[in-house]
Amino acid sequence: MVICDEDSKYSGIFSDTILFFIASTYIDFKTVRAAFPLFLAYLSSLV
What we know:
By secondary structure, this protein is mostly helical. It has one helix at residues 2-46.
């Protein structure tokens, strides 16, 4: 029973880590996509 408890604890941490990774990647992607036109305008103003 103790081994099963340890397994469930680690699998919970593992799934939480995956969810956090997916969420952070999605947020980063939205931020980059929103800031990309501004970044292009900044580059074109430098040239």
